[in-house]
Design a protein that fits this description.
By secondary structure, the protein is α+β, with helices and mostly antiparallel strands. The strands form two sheets. A seven-stranded mixed sheet has the order 5-6-2-1-3-4-7. A two-stranded antiparallel ribbon has the order 8-9. The protein is globular. 45% of the residues are buried.
């Protein structure tokens, strides 16, 4: 397998990293997340100008036909800069759903609005919602739903999956800021009319694609945050002098940093695997396996970032604690290692049901 970036992927990587480093410094980020929307509208417009809103769409829809690797490049850079813009909600999840939906209705107009950055969409993954006499039910803590112009909703119609779209202004939304940046909302639907994008097996398949794309993005974002947090920690160990010598001179702390590096490489492998496999028919099993590895690595790295920094690692004025918070928030969205392990087992795991000597024959 060729693990080298293509020329186009390398150009994307350099562009996004350069933008985040230049426009999303830690002090700038603190101002962005303290604003009314919890992010910067100017940065959002700049991301659209860079073409990053086009990645999820095919060339036929005016997009760049980017796959999991391209999305992971963006996610990793965003993780390093702790970018709080609603890219995952709008440009990954909602865009993936619209890209996979059949043509017709307002689809093309919504795609154009998302690609230009003029509008923001939120994806509501709530199959328990009922779509009979309109859309009815509640969805809790939907990322970016308070600022979204329209919603893409995964619900249920007579027990079968259905994918819907509706204007966000027609529903009751209770918005709030999220710890560490960004916003979310609790939504109440009361017999709201909606446009059906897909039903039955087609809707179920789109939902699997959206979930895999979202989880792979989060794992790659976690890699970026873990990498930056690790580098910050190593630099602190080299420069923080205590009792007349740098903290890094302590062999026990050197071993701890080495363990962080090992876990970081495990996380890197998990992120790459999820990015490669999210667009295949084996996405459910593969992403579950990546989550299992990533969740354990994220927890260890995040805890060590704080532990090795000491008290300064939990202050609002220093970046270390923010990397810990972001890793913790991503872990909360991905679930637990136990749940990932159960999902792997439910899919039959990675072993053949027959003994290896029979499978080889």
């Amino acid at each position: 397998m060729n693990l080298q970036w293509s020329e186009e992927q390398q150009l994307l990587r350099d562009m996004v990293r350069r933008f985040v480093a230049g426009e999303y410094g830690f002090e700038q980020r603190q101002k962005f997340i303290a604003s009314a929307h919890g992010f910067s509208r100017e940065i959002w417009a700049a991301l659209a100008e860079l073409g990053l809103m086009l990645l999820s769409f095919s060339e036929a829809d005016g997009g760049m036909a980017g796959g999991g690797l391209e999305a992971s490049i963006v996610a990793e850079a965003f993780g390093q800069g702790l970018v709080a813009e609603p890219y995952l909600a709008s440009a990954v999840k909602a865009s993936t759903a619209l890209a996979a939906a059949p043509a017709g209705g307002m689809r093309e107009q919504w795609i154009a609005d998302l690609q230009s950055g003029e509008k923001i969409a939120a994806f509501v993954d709530a199959p328990e919602l009922d779509f009979a006499d309109g859309l009815t039910g509640e969805a809790i803590c939907v990322a970016a739903a308070d600022i979204a112009d329209f919603l893409i909703v995964a619900a249920s119609k007579a027990g079968a999956p259905v994918l819907l779209a509706l204007g966000a202004g027609a529903v009751q939304r209770d918005g709030y800021k999220l710890h560490g940046g960004g916003t979310a909302a609790d939504i109440r639907f009361e017999h709201n009319p909606a446009l059906v994008l897909a039903e039955g097996a087609a809707a179920a398949e789109i939902l699997l694609q959206v979930r895999a794309a979202g989880e792979a993005f989060l794992i790659a974002e976690a890699l970026g945050a873990a990498q930056a947090g690790f580098e910050l920690t190593v630099e602190y160990l080299k420069t923080r002098v205590q009792f007349g010598k740098p903290l890094g001179a302590n062999q026990a702390l050197q071993h701890r940093a080495s363990e962080m590096f090992v876990e970081l490489e495990q996380l890197r492998s998990a992120a790459l695997y999820a990015a490669v496999m999210r667009d295949t028919d084996e996405r459910e099993l593969a992403v579950a396996a990546a989550k299992y590895v990533a969740l354990k690595a994220m927890r260890f790295i995040g805890q060590q970032i704080v532990q090795l920094h000491g008290g300064i690692g939990v202050t609002q004025e220093y970046a270390a604690g923010h990397y810990f918070m972001r890793l913790t928030a991503i872990a909360a969205q991905l679930g637990t290692p136990e749940a990932a392990s159960a999902a792997i087992a439910a899919k039959g795991g990675f072993t053949s049901p027959a003994p290896y000597w029979e499978s080889a024959a």
